[in-house]
Each structure stands twice: as structure tokens, then as C-alpha cells.
Amino acid sequence: MNRTVGLVLGLLALLVGCVASKASLQPSIVAAGLSPSVDGSRIYFVPIGDFPAGQLDSMVEFYRQRYGLDIPVLRSVSIDDSARDSTRQQVIAEKLLASLRAANPNLANDRKAILIGFTSEDIYPSSQNWQFCFGWRDATSHTAVVSTARLNLRRESAPFAADMSVARLRKVVTKDIGMLYFGLPQNGNPKSVMYEFVVGIDDLDQVGEEF
Question: In which residue ranges of the chain is pLDDT below 70?
């Protein structure tokens, strides 16, 4: 009798474990109420320059699990010399977007395709009086670029953990996805990933990863 009870309990535990495992792979509840602003839209990740394409694998898996998104990683795009500002030792964000689109003309002309490029180089928007930016996007051309150059910055007021730069990168990318894919507006909530006034690493650390 005890052996039978033990067997039943073991099977129940196994069943619960399988259910929990499957549940963890489902898109989050947050995504349940979201839909693409343009039906049939698809996101594409694009490594730029020497950015390691393999680093995007975990990002692809994250968004698959969190939002049920299937995001292909395209071939790496080179950085055109015209996009470099030698006086500032930075890359011009707007020109980097143009290079990204020029390298993928078919997708650039497809209103359902969203291109998000990744660079390890420091960038800044020439159209703004900014020292740098974590990322830059153009909603009209459904294109964005993200820079990891400053995502490992340390804050004097808080210790730096090894996974902080990964979380910071996800926040920047999630905001791009929120705007370009889901059509969400920026907001004034400093805890939301859609917070409008992220001007430095402190602001980026303060926002969450949820819409």
C-alpha cells in the first residue's frame, strides 16, 4: 500500500513539474493584452560592426519566452566611414540607422519589418545636443539601433553586478519593441520601461522591464 501511495505521489510531482516547466515557457501575462500595431509585423536583430552575433542568442530567447516573439538574427552590417565622427570618437546614430536600412533594402521597404541593430561602439545623435545615447530609433522608418558602449558604467551610489549590463540592454531594446512593434507611447512613469526621460545610467537602472 505504501509503495502504491509513493508511486502516485511521485507521478503527481512529475506532472506538476512538467506543467510548471511548460508554463515558464509561455509568453508573460503582460504580453497577453498586447498586439502589434501593424498586423503581421516582425522584428529582426542585426549585429553591427564587431558586435558578436552570439550575444544576441539569449536576447532572442528572452523575447520568445516573455512575449512569444520569433526574432531572426540577420547578417552583420559594417559601419560606413561616413557614419564616424573622428572629432568625438563616436558614431553618428542617424547615419548608423541609414546604413542598417541600406544593408537590408527589402526589409527597409517593408512596413511590417522592424530592424533593431546592435553596436558595441559609442553613439550620439547629431540632431540633438547630446553627449551620447544608449539607443536611437526612427518610428517612421521602423528602425532602431542600440549601443552597449556605456551599459557597463558603474554608479558610485550602487555596486555593479555582472548581469547589470544585460538587464540594461534588455531595457533599451524592450522600449524599442514597445514603441516600434506594439505601438506604445513613452510615459512619465520612472518605473516603466517606457519612461520618456532616460538621460543617464541612473535613470536606466531605475526603470523596470515591464511596460
Answer: 1-32, 155-162
Long-range contact list for 58-64, CB < 8 A, 24+ apart? 58/166, 59/169, 59/170, 59/173, 62/170, 63/177
**Residue 124 and residue 88 in contact, taking contact as beta carbons nearer than 8 Å:** yes
> Per-residue b/e over 20-58, b at no fewer than 16 CB within 10 Å?
eeeeeeeeeeebeebebeeeebbbbbbbbbebeeeebee
Cell reading at 141: 522608418
Q: Sign of torsion, CA 211 64 160 89? A: negative
Fold adopted by 41-206 = Collagenase (Catalytic Domain) (3.40.390)
* Domain ranges within the chain, ordered by starting residue: 41-206
For 73-112, letters b (16+ CB in 10 Å) and e give: bbebbebeeebbeeeeebbbbbbbbbbbbebbeebbeeee
The continuous run of DSSP H or E covering 44 comes out as: strand 42-47
User: What pLDDT, on the 0 to 100 scale, is given for residue 22?
Assistant: 40
